[in-house]
Structure formats: structure tokens, C-alpha cells
Prior knowledge:
4-stranded parallel β-sheet, 37% helix, 2 domains, Rossmann fold, 6-stranded mixed β-sheet, alpha/beta, 19 strands, pyruvate-formate lyase- activating enzyme
Amino acid sequence: xxxxxxxxxxxRLKAETGTMAHSWSxxxxxxxxxxxxxxxxxxxxxxLLTVYHLLNSRDDCLCERFFLPDPEELQEHExxxxxxxxxxxxxxxxxxxxxxxxxxxxxxxxxxxxxxxxARIPLFSAERDTKYPxxxxxxxxxxxxxxxxxxxxxxxxxxxxxxxxxxxxxxLQSGGENREELLIRLAQLPGIYVPxxxxxxYHDDGSCAAxxxxxxxPGKVARQYLKDLDSSPSRSFIQTPGTEFGDMxxxxxxxxxxxxxxxxxxxxxxxxxxxxSLGNLLEQVDSGLCQRDKIGLVGAxxxxxxxxxxxQQGILQRGGKVSVSxxxxxxxxxxxxxxxxxxxxxxxxIAPEAGSQRLRDLINKGLDEEQIxxxxxxxxxGDILHLKLYFLIGLPTETEEDLDALLQLTEQIRLLWxxxxxxxxxxGTVTLSVNPFIPKPFTPLQWAAMDGEKVLKKKIRFLRSxxxxxxxxxxxxxxxxxxxxxxxxxRGDRRTARLLxxxxxxxxxxxxxxxxxxxxxxxxxxxxxxxxxFPWEIIDQGVRRDYLWAEYERGLTxxxxxxxxxxxxxxxxxx
Length: 575
């Protein structure tokens, strides 16, 4: 027993409000909900909190949370030999009937070996017999590309939790057969993928040749989604100060996005775009304001919500403050900026994504320079002190001229910001957040290659040198190695699971690939041909492959897509 670890968990629980703890003596089905990152990160994840709420709202179920230990906690686990335990009842993973992982980010795969080791459970499913609980993968990674974890998990929830969980939990509780028969039955449920029931074959060049299903399961697994968001709340059901957004109550405004940016996975895997009604949102706001005085509005395209001004006004009229996760540059209004200022915002983030019009057209951003600068003027005149700009580098066909255009746009923005700062007597800072482009599954750019490490380093050195000569301007860059690892895990197949124990052991990616007999550039650095079968295509995402290919070609030739909603079923994109 470790008194230090127990005290840490109990201190967290004491600081929380909204925790749901059920008795273990009434025969409920017991679900361990695991977020493979720290408590600080996990408790800001609305997907995790929504699943927790859905399961604990059932009379026949209990759900408790597990997190990756912080470094000092991990050291205590290693020293004491104390197993990983739940937040609510401090029980180990082996005491539960189901282990459900909620994974939103590919780089969190690296933490799975640590979690399984601390739980004293074998990492690979082939090494686990029936004395171990089945392992379920959920979260956006589960329906973006589950294949890198196909040899680790037993089940995958392909889609959103609300339409999948009820039938899945019912089927798991019914039991009555051996594990193989149970998995076959579960694989017949909508949205449930059982990797062990599909045989994967590869061509001599390493690309995927075929994915052959067991005779009793579907050839592809169709992604499930909640049609009416109003039917299921999604907000900060548990409030805690120990998280990144601990000062606000988060509320989900919408799912999906109608913009069709060609690099953005969220714009395709959450189709069709759906909004909550204003009345539903204000009810959630009322609940949130009982706990916090600031409401954080969450969604892939919050600023596209058709009643965003009325929603902001409703929050302010109730005495609350507003925080938004995104701004719509081509439709930003003075009223929205006033709402941000009234809520105490000192920093606002916008995403031009690319400096040149050519690259903005390639990714279908749908913005021109004047729209970007007009939005910056509104924010500057609205007394916002600091501005953060998100850019991608390494987009297909990017040239030195495109990087020059990025710097020229930044300089124009900096001058506008400087003039506004002089008028108010405080200059503020413009920060560039520059991230390498990663070609993600189920996007039109899934066929593209990622820039090599040397090329990306050269581009960042060029940008850093130029920005260092711009007063009151900073440059932050994502780690190139981390980005390339994310790309490999996002685009990987079943063989990439071999890397995870090696990377936990401290090997760098290149060494881990050599040990595992894999080539990182095969997954990351090559352009795919039109007809190559992708590992993630075991999922039926609902968007036609020929549409994605046409969008890829259209982007490379500089064409913008129609603004017709992807997935609207009027334009033939979807099945």
C-alpha cells in the first residue's frame, strides 16, 4: 500500500464537485474508464466526462476513472510496487468487468505500456486469457484509425458514445458464452469493431492488400453518430481546479464542421455537422454557472454556431463570462469581440493556417488576406492585448515563396497590432504557433506525404530567424520528432503496435523502428497512390473515397470546393 498515492487521490476527490460514486455491493456492471494521460489533461476532456456521466446514469452500471500517473506518482508506483487504482474507490483495474480507454491523441498511445504494466495486465490481447477484463478502445482515435492498437484492444467503439454504449453494455452484461463467441456477437452490433475477427494481408512492398472479416461479421464497420445533440448533454459534469480549464464550465455547442478544410480530420469524421438548440445550451449554461462564473464553449467550429451572438449575450446577461475555442475570421463581429473583452480575454487565437493565398486555397481554408486583416483590426480595436496565430508548414507543394508570404502576412498583422497597442498604451504580443502538417486519415490530404525532418528543421530555422527581427513577436514550434511520431501512429497499421513497448523503454523512433523491423518513412514520408488500400478503411466513415480523391486533386490544382456542406447528402459526397 502507498499512503502517498492514496492521499493524492483523496485530495483530488475532495476538490471535485459532481463526482458519481456507486456502491460495489449491488451487482452493477463495473467499467474502468481510462484516460491515457494525466488527470490535469483528462479532466478537460468532454468526451471522457460525457461517457462517465452516461455510464453512471444507468441503474445497472458503475464507472470509475483512471489516469496516467504524474511523474512523481509514477516514481512512487515504481518504488512501492503499488498498482494503478481508480479515483473513486481506489480499486485496481483487474477488479472491473470492462476496461474502456478514451483516446483523443495518437501520442497518448505511448502511455499504454505504462498503464498496462502498472495494472499488471499483458499489453497485447493475444497474451490475455479470460481472467482479464475485455479492453475497449473509444474516443476520436478509435474512429480515425484504430489499427495501430488492433493487437492491443479487444473491442473498438467506432463513433460517438451515445448511440453505441447502451447496446454494448447490455450485450456485455448478458454474457453466457465463451470469449470468442461473445466477441462475434458484439461485432454484429452497430459501431463495434473486433480486430481479432479480421485477417490482414500485406503486399510485398508492405502496403495493405486485404482485410478479410470472419464470416459472421461485417466487411466494414460503419461509424455511429448522435443525430440530435439536444438528446444528450455534454458539459463539465465534474468540476475540479486541477485541470487546464479549471476556472470555467465547459459546454459543447456543436459537433462537426461545414468548412471542409482539406487537412482537418475533425471536419470529416464528425460529419454531418450538428448544432445544439439555443434553449438546450442555455440550460447547460445555467447548470455551469452554478459552479463557475465562466462558460467555455467547445466545438470544432464554435464560431459557426448560427446563434453565437445570442448565446454570448445569454451568458453575459446571466452574470457569466465567455470563453470560445475558435473564432470565425470571415464573420467576426464587433459584438463578439465586445463579449470577449467583457469576459476578460487578454489573448485571442486565430488560424490563418497558411500565409499565401495559393496554400489557403489548396487546403480550402476559404479566407483571403483582407478577411484575415479585417478580423485582426476588429480584435485590435476591441482592446484584446495578445494575439496568437496558428500556421501549418510543410503543406503539399509548399515553396520558399509561401514561407515568405507567411512572414509578410505576420508583419502586416504585427503593424496593425502595434498601432492599436500604441493607442491604448500597451503593445501586447503577437505569437506564431507553427506546426508541421500531418496528413490524417479520412481527409483529402490522406494521400500526401509529410515533409522530412531535415526539410522541416530548415523551414523552422528560416522562420525563427525572420521572426526574431520582428519586435513584440514570438515563434513557438511543435517538436518535429513528436509530429512525425504522431503522423506514424495516425497512419499506421497493426504492425506499428510493436513500437509502443520500445518507445516506453526510451528508444527514439528511428531506433525503435529498426528494432521492430519497420520503416518510419514508409508510413510518414511517401505519397500514396490513388488505389492503395489504407489500414483505416476497415471503417465506413460515410464519406465517399472518390470524393476525397477529387478534393485532393482539386487542392493540388488550386481549386476551391463548393461551400456545399460536406456530408449534407445533397451533393452526393456521402453514401
